[in-house]
Amino acid sequence: MKAIVIGTGRMGKAIVKVLAEAYPGEIGLYSRDQEKAASLIRSLEVNAIAVTAAQQFEAPIIIHTLWYKDVLPWVVLHREALAGKILVDITNPFNDDFTDFVTDYNTSSAEEIQKLVPDTAVAGAFKNTYWVVFDQPEYNGIQSDIYVTANADTIRSQVMAFLQPIPFRIFDAGVLRNNRTIERMTLLEKELAQKAGNHPRVSFHLWGVDAR
Ligand SMILES: NC(=O)c1ccc[n+]([C@@H]2O[C@H](COP(=O)([O-])OP(=O)(O)OC[C@H]3O[C@@H](n4cnc5c(N)ncnc54)[C@H](OP(=O)(O)O)[C@@H]3O)[C@@H](O)[C@H]2O)c1
User: Fold this and answer.
1) Whose CA is closest to 183, among 87, 106, 120, 118?
2) CATH 3.20.20.140, applies to 60-196
3) Is 100 left (phi over 0), alpha (psi -120 to 50) or beta?
């Protein structure tokens, strides 16, 4: 398997769909309820694999779709299994009523996770793209962006190459520290979209710049 998606919620469903379409038979999906993963794969009509708990880290790239409060204990619990892997973090550390973040301005979800798993290469991605966008990542002919971050150039390159076949513009967005901005862009995006009445079908597209 090229990658395993952890979780079958809104983002798990959205991400496994685009990845399994790009890599049929090579993407795993893990749920704490294996039948839930199997039935989601059937309903999406994609060729993906519902993996067991024992198999959930058997790929070089693990994409978790947990909430910030859940992902911190989860990485600690699985620190050994995650060692040597790339862990893609998609989290925006919202508070309970989604009005603000629980992290300070001098850090980000991706950085906090990286501190807990120093032997894992944490990469940020998908943070600004709401789940409904995955069904149709173009709006008026403009494609949604995905900003990829990681501290090592080699890890960013690996994640970007992996994501290249999915129908988004993939950007090299630099080191994990940039998630302090990228994650908070989601807060602004949400407020603007709610005012415009278009929430949650929103994402970013950096106008005037071509992705590499
Ligand atoms: N929703 C969006 O549009 C959006 C956009 C960008 C980023 N994000 C980020 O994506 C993450 C998920 O958002 P979501 O809307 O997809 O949430 P969600 O629908 O609630 O899905 C979260 C999933 O995480 C899994 N999970 C929960 N606790 C777990 C645990 N202890 N161990 C293993 N798996 C666990 C569950 O899957 P199983 O029941 O199958 O195990 C659950 O369905 C959040 O961090 C959010 O900030 C969301």
Assistant:
1) 106
2) no
3) beta
Residue 161, φ and ψ in degrees, nearest 5:
-65, -40
Residues 36/75/15/206 CA torsion (nearest 10 deg): 160
Mean pLDDT of 144-159: 98
Supply the residue whose CA is at minimum distance from atom 15 of ligand 1. 10
pLDDT, tens only, 14-47? 999 999 999 999 999 999 999 999 999 999 999 9
Query: Which of 4, 5, 6, 11 maximizes ligand 1 atoms within 8 Å of its Cβ, making it the mutation to test the pocket?
Result: 11
Mean pLDDT, rounded, for 155-165 = 98
* Threshold 0.85, pTM exceeds: yes
Handedness of CA 137, 210, 126, 85 (dihedral sign): positive
Instruction: Report in angstroms the alpha-carbon separations of 61 from 37, 70, 72, 201.
Output: 18, 19, 18, 27
Instruction: List the structure tokens of 2.
Output: 């090229």
User: Given ligand 1 and candidates 8, 36, 65, which is best to mutate, with the most ligand atoms within 8 Å of its CB?
Assistant: 65
